[in-house]
Amino acid sequence: MNDPAHESAVIARGLARRFGETRAVRGVSFEIARGEIFGLVGPDGAGKSTIMRMLAGVLRPDEGEIRLAGIDVVTDTERARPYLSYMPQRFGLYEDMTIAENIYFFATLFEVPTAVRRARSRELLAAAGLQPFRHRLAGQLSGGMKQKLGLVCALIHTPQVLLLDEPTTGVDPVSRRDFWGILYGLREHGVTIVLSTAYMDEAERCSRLALLHAGEIRQCDTPARLKQMVSGALVAVSTHDARGAHALIQGAPGVLGSLLMGDRVNVRLDDAERRIGPLRALLVAQGFDDVAIQPIEPGIEDVFVAMLGAEPAS
Amino acid sequence: MARGLTRRFGQFTAVDRVDLNIAKGEIVGFIGPNGAGKSTTLRMLCGLLTPSAGEARVAGYDVGREPEALRQHIGYMSQKFSLYGDLTVRENLRFFGGLYRVSRNEVEARIRAAVEMAGLTGREDALVGTLAGGWKQRLALGCAILHRPPVLFLDEPTSGVEPQARRKFWDLIHELAAQQVAILVSTHYMDEAEYCNRIALIDAGRIVAMGSPGELRRRDLGGTLYELDCGALGAALAALHHAPAVIDAAIFADKLHVLLSRSSNVEALTALLARHGISCGIAHQIMPSLEDVFVQLVAKPTSGAAA
Fold first, then answer.
1. Residue B188 is nearest to which of A141, A173, A200, comparing CB atoms?
2. Cβ contact (<8 Å) for B174 and A43?
3. Cα–Cα distance between A10 and A39 in angstroms, integer?
């Protein structure tokens, strides 16, 4: 029954943690299967980092249970350590050491045998595209490269579960795409990844998401199923004068919500089929004769807004 | 606004002959990889750094010759809102009012307007440190525009903020634009760029693309983008990377995005995967996202030097 091979890679039950008066995490439960990329998504202060730190065994929960690869992280932290790797928001790279020296340091810390370290390090550096720079000081790397080096160091002992706390904050889209390429590669090898992000577009890349709000999980599902929660249909209304069109659209029949973007208006309609025709006619009649209306897919941000819609916004 | 703007650091040209125009009432997004010259450009436009060559006029002032006067006529807000957590809402606003030399008989009215804009009416005496992210962010905006600057610079203004608060924030920015403020938004996040009327993409110190989000998405990427649903994503990706007709391929959640050269077709793509023993569903042609465009337009990094 306690055979680790048959248990979920990560199980959290009833996690709670307070800091003084603040209930940072309240009653959080989830189960993550092997090979999933599980995203903890929410704004700053939603409890993402606190959950990450508890999963990593560096912060004790006030209540609740965490099992990782079949091991109780709360009571048996030391035994869980070889199976997990935790990359906090500010990963402790040594800026005055080279890439190769940083890797050597972390390999020693995790007691990786020399032969394994050499092979593993070559493989990881190649995947991260860092091989040509291995003698460069970590302090002289760009933000994206530092993040990739952090990942290489975190992976040197071949962990089964990788915990990444906001790994791509401040990283440009090109480096971010490389970084995700590495994560997908790890998933193919059965590594389970838990990552937190405040970026809704990044969340779409995960296989499953927990949407966090004020220390609680409000929804947990695949991105595709979460998007089905958004009621109505989303359309993009493009015209030369999006600002002018927005004013008209706001009061039009069937409009549940509208958002002025840079060169269009994103509109949520109660019934696309019935409303698009009259909406177009209304806009054309007011002189927006170049108007184009196209259906668009909702994003995770739309899910968040729909989910919290009834509550007062901060 | 900027013509031939250049900045060299020793041998290194961080910003290379940049031309940039922002009309009154326009929101322009400024995106580019780390080290592309984004912050250097921004610092020159704010009068914090003297250009090596070229010129820029912001709010009517020459950035090289009149940096002090310029700084009194621009607003700046970064993701790390420079608010004082142990001061109240009102005290923060008074502080910025003093800093920007807002006249005594106008400052109270402007503070009231800023409080109202931030939705903080009735909470003027609350300590800023106790406010949630969305309020802080709108208050920071209020502080940044207390002196009614005609030009506003925003640096990743909405990262880490709640979705509803974020949307409210962009509504405010669009309202400011409607009042003829010129706004430059520097960001790494494509969903922030989508709120901009035009986007300038900078790479290796030069502007490599400029246009509305729609125009950029319709740009020629040298091929057609397909979304492919298949089981063995990793194996499929490896096979595609060696196929000559594939310009680029990347995993996106549980699907593959493949940029296929126009000389090839999608049947050839699925046939190629079938030869590797990988079966897949129907390939759909998809509209490139801003990120797809960005990644294709930016040269692959050849050096890892920090900016």
1. A173
2. no
3. 13
- The answer, for B301 touching chain A at a CB cutoff of 8 Å, is yes
Question: With bands split at pLDDT 50, 70 and 90, how would you rate the model's confidence at A313?
Answer: very low
Closest CA to A249 of A297, A302, A300, A293: A293
Q: Among B234, B216, B236, B235, which residue's Cα sits nearest to residue B296?
A: B216
Q: Which residues are registered as beta bridge partners of B5?
A: B18
Res. B305: pLDDT tops 60: no
ipTM, two decimals: 0.83
Residue B134: pLDDT band with limits 50, 70, 90 = confident
Cα B165 to Cα B160: distance, rounded to the nearest angstrom: 10
B163 burial (CB, 10 Å; 0-12 / 13-18 / 19+) is: buried
Chain A nearest CA to B69, separation (Å): 31
The verdict on a CB contact (< 8 Å) between B191 and A201 is yes
User: Nearest CB to A314: which of B165, B177, B190?
Assistant: B165
Q: Band the pLDDT of A309: cuts 50, 70, 90.
A: confident
For the segment(s) B2-217, the CATH number from 1.25.40.20, 1.20.58.2050, 1.10.357.10, 3.40.50.300 is 3.40.50.300
> Distance from A204 to chain B by nearest Cα, in Å?
7
B68-107, pLDDT tens digit by residue? 999 889 999 986 667 899 999 999 999 999 988 899 899 9
User: How high is the pLDDT of residue A1?
Assistant: 43
Task: Name the residue in chain A with its Cα closest to that of B291.
Answer: A173
Query: Which CATH entry fits the domain spanning B223-287: 2.40.50.150, 3.40.50.620, 3.30.70.100, 3.10.129.10?
Result: 3.30.70.100
- Pick from A142, A198, A201: which is nearest to B304 by CB? A142
B299 touches chain A (CB under 8 A): no
Is the pLDDT at B164 greater than 90? The verdict is no
For A130-152, the DSSP string reads -GGGTTSBGGGB-HHHHHHHHHH
> How far out from the chain centre does Cα A47 lie?
13
> What's the rounded mean pLDDT across residues A247-253?
93
Nearest-CA distance from B232 to chain A in Å?
Answer: 9
In chain B, what residues touch A261 (CB-CB under 8 Å)? Answer: 194-195, 213
Predicted local distance difference test score (pLDDT) of residue B304: 39
Å between B137 CA and nearest CA of chain A: 10
Residue A181: is its pLDDT beyond 60?
Answer: yes
